[in-house]
Amino acid sequence: MRAQFVLSEIGVGLRRNLTMTFAVIVSVALSLALFGGSLLMSDQVNQMKGYWYDKVNVSIFLCNKSDAESDPNCSKGAVTQEQKDQILSDLKKMSVVEKVTYESQDEAYKHYKEQFGDSPLASSLTPDQMQESYRIKLKNPEQYQVIASAFNGRDGVQSVQDQKGILDNLFGLLNGMNWAARAVMAMMLVVALMLIVNTVRVSAFSRRRETGIMRLVGASGFYIQAPFIMEAAVAGLIGGTVACGFLLIARYFIIDHGLDLSHKLNLINFIGWDAVLTKLPLILATSLLMPALAAFFALRKYLKV
């Protein structure tokens, strides 16, 4: 097979169907940009989970005098020093516990004023209305139920709260958005495949005389198919390159510059350039193979003598 002939046929085919070729490039670029974006979103969520789950605590809130009057869990009165010592002793004996920190009423009041000092409620609160608590760092954040089952309902304990539950709601929302992006990506891939198949068939129909002559002189099926397959592959590769450009530009302007989220949202540990760059070969390979395979199967009936 002469490479010059194949390349010339690719150029002819792309020029003949310029509008459809452009549509293929755009649809492939958008679908693969969404594909790469969904992969990066998964990496971002996993990185955030690893970062934040490592920082979450389980909090055991202790009964105060106000709770004793209004909360059924504290019906036996405010927590006593003996009860606090027993809770601390039991926590230190548990193998799932990595670290225990005590927060007094004065410390809780100070932290509340720092976070919500501008709210109208803050001016009416006093330190004795705040709750003492133990903040427990677990070796494995998934083992919250071990603490909850051991201390819920115990005398002097008002409630056991897991900060991980709050994060689970956030990550559930992010995962839902990621699956929505994947659904749109799947629809865009279907559209791209339909455009590729249609473009290849139109190209094959417009050159049916040439392919008929080639069949009559004994050209192999692969020799006849090669220009059409490579046309689709080239259009897909251009789309994949554009998709890679989208991802690089998005990473640069959204996180590093432009919106500059890495500085505005410094509590979020954003994925690095390495995560983006490792996805580019996969996107380029998909952009090359997907159109080529679609063209191969679309052309089978045109090779029948």
Question: What labels would you give this structure?
Answer:
rod-shaped, 4 strands, 11 helices, 8% strand, alpha+beta, 68% helix, 4-stranded antiparallel sheet, 305 residues
Can you put this structure into words, describing what you see?
- With about 300 residues, the chain is of the alpha+beta class.
- Helix content is about 70%, strand content about 10%.
- The chain contains eleven helices and four strands, in the order ααβααβαβαβααααα.
- It has a four-stranded antiparallel sheet.
- Helix 7 packs antiparallel against helix 9 and helix 7 runs parallel beside helix 11.
- It is rod-shaped, with a radius of gyration of 32 Å.
- The model has no long low-confidence stretch (mean pLDDT about 75).
Which residues sit in consecutive blocks of at least 5 with pLDDT less than 50?
none
Mean pLDDT: 77
- How many β-strand stretches? 4
What portion of the residues fall into strands of 2 or more residues? 5-15%
Question: Could you tell me how far the N terminus lies from the C terminus, measured between alpha carbons in angstroms?
Answer: 21 Å
Oligomer: single chain
**Tell me about the biggest sheet?**
4 strands, antiparallel
Radius of gyration, in Å, reads: 32 Å
Strand order across the biggest sheet?
Answer: 2-3-1-4
SSE diagram, text form:
Layout: H1 3-16, H2 18-53, E1 58-62, H3 65-70, H4 81-93, E2 97-103, H5 105-116, E3 133-138, H6 144-151, E4 157-162, H7 163-206, H8 208-216, H9 221-256, H10 261-264, H11 273-298
Antiparallel strand pairs: 1-3, 1-4, 2-3
Helix pairs in contact: 1-9, 2-7, 2-9, 2-11, 7-9, 7-11, 9-11
Organism: Streptomyces cynarae
Domain FtsX extracellular: 56-160
Membrane topology: Multi-pass membrane protein
